[in-house]
Amino acid sequence: MPETPTPSSEENASQTVRALLRLREMILDGELSAGERISEPVVAELTGISRTPIRTALVRLQEEGLLEPIRSGGFRVRAFSLDEIRDAIEIRGTMEGLAARLAAERGVSSERLARLTACVDEIDAVLADDSGLSDTRFAAYVAGNARFHELLEQACDSDVLRRQLDRAKSLPFASPNGFLRVQAVAPDALNTLRIANAQHRALVEALSAREGSRAEALMREHARIAQRNLHATLANPGIKALIPGASLIVDS
Amino acid sequence: MPETPTPSSEENASQTVRALLRLREMILDGELSAGERISEPVVAELTGISRTPIRTALVRLQEEGLLEPIRSGGFRVRAFSLDEIRDAIEIRGTMEGLAARLAAERGVSSERLARLTACVDEIDAVLADDSGLSDTRFAAYVAGNARFHELLEQACDSDVLRRQLDRAKSLPFASPNGFLRVQAVAPDALNTLRIANAQHRALVEALSAREGSRAEALMREHARIAQRNLHATLANPGIKALIPGASLIVDS
DNA sequence: GTACGCCTGGATGTATACATAAAAAATATA
DNA sequence: TATATTTTTTATGTATACATCCAGGCGTAC
Prior knowledge:
The structure is a homodimer. Chain A has 10 helices and 2 strands; from the N terminus they run αααββααααααα. Chain A is mostly helical. A two-stranded antiparallel sheet of chain A has the order 1-2. Residues 1-9 of chain A have low confidence and may be disordered.
């Protein structure tokens, strides 16, 4: 009964990894609501995992920023104000800008440039047709977008920077894909996605020409798309649920 | 016997905190050398703390970046190449630049500006005398410098940014005080410290005038002092030991 | 002399027991 | 009825036991 019937990626993982994935899922899906104290025995009962691995998963999630420690012990689910989300996006843009600048200044190998170009081309191909944005096309865009940002991360060729970037992206609303579902429901969605990919293409150009300052500015501006989407969500709260981890957002 | 006779800050802390502090100390002091696998039973024996709190401290240190996981299990002490140190400093400068820009753009309260000004004044007072840089004067500079950077962190008034900044500063060589001892042994130490504080003062000016771009540029340039000190260390390996965590540095 | 395999020592990951301390509930009281 | 107080319940932090797995050494065979 406690066996996970899903043949997902959690098959042969350690208990700690399972606990981490499950807890993150519970937090982002709102099964554990913002501000709520997390009871280790309850989670242990719910997941069928003993307290020890759950405990280390909790520590990891605290470092990740999804949990905050309680003075008297234990953790609670972190709540995020709109200002904090704005700042998290700004941080991501700044870090991606840094990665882009360093990559441009230091030079990116032709293989990596080719992979980046191919990625941008693929996204353009997905967006080429003027007909409506179907679910499969949208999913393809999401995958392409994630891949592009991953390739940029690799292009800077720096482990310490990658670590910091990963951390900046770890909050769901700060991730490059965080607000895409919000963007997709806008009437001019296809257009804004094309503009975003134009920025991708411009970045590859800048990397190739070793234009560090331009590369940095581009990625900063690129992240502002998420800021716009955040504002769009404010104007139309009905679409708030499209944001991953929406239940963590609290108005301040 | 296993009682810590030092009345330090570790008195009434939890075992986990004690393990964290002790392990960090052991790593930075080179008691555990770079690349070495950390044996939990050995550390437990050495510290008189059971494996459980040590284990969570290890997880924290991994998130902090001082340890890296071993595929087959456990952790090893991370080794840092000069390139990685350079990047860590660059990241710190970029994040402090972001904090400065946001603080300037959003405005800093007059009380905070006053505290920043007072801090800069105090540092200038420490550096006023042209006589040699005594140990006590140097210690006063270190304290003032740490305080200034802490005040900047507060000035941006953003928890998410603070968290990310703390992380950027957590590597010893990336910290604002990381290379100060290297700087202090240079013949023109007093001068370079004065220049550094001039940058501090300029930042307060920029914050006060809400000049975001200038504030950002200043903190980026400010971090480059550490880069210069890093290069100075390369030219004169005899002073390498002045860097905290020197044993973690490996030439690549 | 070298390569292969087995075997022993030790380490990690996990579960669990227990003491302390906090939170919640229930009772008594103004 | 609201509040203060005591009691009960529950959670956390820590130590420890144990199974599995990895690493390294020793012996053997070629």
